[in-house]
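Protocol step 4 of 5: obtain the predicted structure for the target chain.
Materials: sequence only (see below). No template structures provided, no constraints applied. The aim of this step is simply to have a reference model before the mutagenesis design in step 5. Sequence pasted as it appears in the construct record:
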Amino acid sequence: MRTTRLLYPTPIRGREGLLFSMVFGIAVIIFLWVVKPFDIDEQDYSFAEISIFGLISFLVFAISHTLIPALHEDIYPEQRWTVYHQIFYYLLLSFIIATLNGLYINVRNDLSFSWSNYGLIIRQTLIVGVIAISLIVFFSYSLRLRRFSHESSLFSTIASEAPRQDQSSLNITSDLKSEDVKLTKAQFLFAKSSGNYVELYSKSGEVQVLRLSLKDLESQLTHHPHLLRCHRSYMVNLQHITEVDGNAQGLRLSMRSSKHVVLVSRKYLNDFKSAMQQK
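Step 4 output (structure tokens):
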């Protein structure tokens, strides 16, 4: 399951993404007010006027981290997201922010648009951004890779153990009664969220698509300790894990009788570790 691609966590989304956007916007305001780069001090910007720069940064990040993922769940494909995608993503946001900041400066100072001035702003942004963003992303990648490679080694023996053939029944109720599913716990491999549906993978290789959220599925199976939510998009049967691998995205699980890889995100890592130790 090892891969040479520099896989990297996709941009955070939802409430965490909104919180990150707010913190970033506030950090921009504090930086500009304290350091006063780009002749801000000479142009006599008030705190309110400086705050507009922070507001612009917040809105750009909030849209990219919350609104866009909400409109298109797979806009940032986790299985293919790499270090280079992350660098390009943040450079693109920097480009958008620099453009909007430039427009704001023109309006604030009653200046007409100039391609030369605009080009200068973009060049300054990209020159500083490429170096800073690349260093931060690669440093983060190195730390995360080291951490999750170590975490995965702790489960090598546990994961390789033969599964118990638990024949207790699972009754899964779909939003559409005609799609209700009954199977044994031993047949359940994992479930994957797909928009308003859940793809249910069984040991036989069958894939059933149910109109159901993963959160609702989790609530139905909460009394089965070996069936665990491990990611915003995955729920897994711990008894069918054959290998645990780690990269900068987190842990990756190989499943018995399947070529699919199940992901374990940072949010669910402690729950996963605890459940695996009791497996």
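Step 4 remarks: Helices lie at 14-35, 47-71, 83-108, 115-153, 156-160, 214-220, 269-277. The first helix runs from residue 14 to 35.
Proceed to step 5.
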